[in-house]
Hints:
Elements: E1 2-6, H1 10-21, E2 25-30, H2 33-39, E3 45-48, H3 54-57, E4 67-70, H4 76-88, E5 94-97, H5 101-110, E6 114-116, H6 123-131, E7 135-140, E8 145-151, H7 161-164, H8 166-170, E9 173-184, E10 190-196, E11 211-217, H9 218-227
Amino acid sequence: MKVIIIGLGNFGAALAKKMSKLGHEIIGVDNDMQKVESLKEKLSYTVYMDATDELAISKLPLNNTDIVIVSIGENEGANIMATAIFKNKNVKRLISRSISSLHENVLQAIGVSEIIRPESESAERWTKKLNVKGVVDSFELNKDYSIIEVLTPAELVGKTFDEVQFKKQHNILVMTIIKNKEEASFLGQYKIVPQVQGFPSSSTVIQSKDVLVIYGANDDIYRFLKKFKMGNI
């Protein structure tokens, strides 16, 4: 993927480096030359630019970009202005960062449906969201290891854990399986209730729509997902 990240503060820089490491073409943009210089060897391109300047933004390769992420965090006004400009440019996919609930309301009013909340969502978590198809949720234990919930790859449906050999073949551990069951409430309305199945045995058969709860090193998790064509890597 080709991604433009506007704002190279702590969150933006971390996300840019993680996405670049996965092989994506990342253009990092900031109006702080020191931040731009510090990342020029780690990203495809870094650009010193004021993202609230519409004329300057027009010089970016927007037509060839898959995702624009506005991660400006220290200035709500600049974030909103930059987001509005990119929205008006009709970029393919626009994601913006919110700093407060009011800020989030303004972004939604602009028409932004994908909003980053760094206070509760890490760069690693968003890296998974941008790269993994079928990701349900993820939890970062530290910078190297995660627990991720992901829909079962089609190629594994009908196989047992003994046949798949998650640990031996992929160096990951499936801690449990979650099955979504439809249950009726006392009012007669139906809702989806997740049911944890416990630790799977070697004879457990993986079924369609199972959610696998995977633990492992981030590199091993991405390798597993790439093998089954569940990522944009």
